[in-house]
Amino acid sequence: MKLRIFNYLILLTLFTSAQNNFFKPDTIKHQLIINSFGGIASSSITQNFMNKFIFPGSINKELKDEVSSNMNPQNLFGGEFSNDIHFYLRPGSLTENGFWGIGFGHNSELNIKFTRDLFNLTFYGNQPYAGEKLDFNNTSFNLLSYSYLDFTLGKIYIKDNSTRSYWIDLGVILGHSYMKYDFPIADLFTESNGNYLDFSISNGEVSIIDKLNDGFIKGFGGKINLNYSYTSEKTNLIIQAKNIGAIHWNSLMSSNLDTTFRFEGIEVGNIFELSDSVINEVDILDTLVASRKNSSFALLPIDLNVYYKRKLGKSSIDLFMRHRLFTNYDPYVRVGFYYQLPILTPGFTLGYGGYSTTQIGVNTELNFRKKLKIILGTNNIIGAIVNQKSMALDAYLGLKLSI
Question: Which of 95, 258, 287, 376 is the most buried (most CB within 10 A)?
Answer without folding.
Answer: 376
